[in-house]
Structures are given as structure tokens and as C-alpha cells.
What we know:
Elements: E1 5-8, H1 23-34, E2 38-42, H2 47-56, E3 63-65, E4 70-72, E5 78-81, H3 86-99, E6 102-106, E7 110-113, H4 118-124, H5 127-131, E8 137-140, H6 144-148, E9 157-161, H7 165-176, E10 181-184, E11 190-195, H8 200-211, E12 218-222, H9 228-233, E13 236-239, H10 245-250, E14 253-254, H11 262-272
Helix pairs in contact: 1-11, 3-7
Amino acid sequence: MDYKLIAIDMDGTLLNSKNEISENNMKAIREATEKGIHIVLSTGRILSSAEFYADSMNLSSYILASNGAVISDGEKNIIYRVPINKGSVKEVMRLGRKHNVYYHFYDETKFYTNNYIDEIYEFYNPRFQKQAGQKIGLIVFKDDEEILEREDINAYKFLFLDDDREKLNGLKQELLNTKGINVSTSWFNNVEVMSDQVSKGLSLKYLCNMLNINRENTIAIGDNENDLSMIEFAGLGVAMGNGEDIVKKNADIITDTNDNDGVSKIIEQYVLK
């Protein structure tokens, strides 16, 4: 098969357990790019974080961020955006408070929370990123209405975090019954909320249509539930060896883990050989 585009998840896929991109992964991506393959980072992360990692690889290509709610091109121009509507934002915030689960949401460059937790903020601003002069903004608010009244905010994605799975599942069940949103997860202790018009698969389909690339000529690689839609859309859907069982069940093939260069092994086997 003549593959023309590879969509790659970041956390648990491209990034190893230290949140780093291995030399083997970078080498494979560089060689695929030199062959004219579109390497697309497809992540639940905030756009500016994904752009930082792309810059670290000298990768100028499209990025699907916030689980596909926003797409930027190789020159960092936003070409597609689907924020959550304000009515749904209000209800999602209400449910977060009701279940007493920490949450934040983000736009392109900043994340917003009513409960600052240093550990979480540092995850979004790791030491090596701050050393490079890039820092993701933070807005701490006290009252929901303070945010809901602002016209300059695009809430692309909510992230709820709690190690109490029973409490988190209770919240998730109510969110699943809320109109206007799509609910997913990317780790055992989180719930993600986007517009019901958003998924990695839908954004990958949009990008393929724009680039006139058939789905059969695409590869998608991921590890978790929020990657399912793009794995099912792609011509070759790949689950990571460290991925969730549901992803492995729905993928065409399973590669090695994120700590053993699973991404590079797929690129080498299906694109570079």
C-alpha cells in the first residue's frame, strides 16, 4: 500500500514514559517526511504543547490537537476549530462541581481551572519546555459565570482527573447523558469532554478530504480510547503494545510499546522498506 499520511498520538504512543521522543522515533519520522509522507500529530493535548514537540523534531506539518477540536497547519495557522458550545460548557462545569472532581479546560494556548494544582500545571510546562522559552498560560477563576460571560474563550476540551474510579465513573455516566458533547478517556484516571462534533477520526477525515488523500492511504497509531475513532477510520489502524485492550481489539495490527519504539517500527515496516 502507498501510504501518504500517518496520524500519531502523543502520550503513550510517540512519547515514552519520560515524555520524550526517542532517537529511533525521530529518525523514522524524519525519513518518512523526506519521502513526502504527511506526519500528523494527533493528540488530546493543548495545541501549543503539540506544537512545541513538533518544533523539537523540526516537523512542519498538520497537528490535530484537543482530540481533533482544532487543527493547525505547518505554519501554525489554525485551519479548523470546533469549540464546545456555551450551553454545554455551563452544564459540564456544573457536573464537575456536583461530583467534586478536579477539571480544567483549554483553548489554543492557555488552560483554565478553578483549582490550581502545581503538579498538573508542571505536567503542561515540563522543565525542558520552559528552558526553551515556551510556557503554556494559566487562568485560575473562582466563579463559573466569570468564564461563561467571556466571549474570547474557545473551550476545546475539558479534562477531569480523579484517582477515585467510582466517583469518576459516576461523573462520566452523567456526562454521557449530556447533550452537545462527546465523552472519552485517555488514561485510567481521566474523563475528556469535547463537542459532539469532535473526535480524532472526524478531524482526520476532514484533513484527508482537504489533502485529497484516500483513507486507505493513511495509518493511525494510538494507545487509548480517544484514539479509537482515527484507528477505525485509517486504512491501517495500529494499537500500541502498551495500549488498552479495546484499542488492540479494534486495531488492524499491534506494534511494540511506547518505550520500545513502537512508532518507528511501524514506519520502518510500512513506509520506509
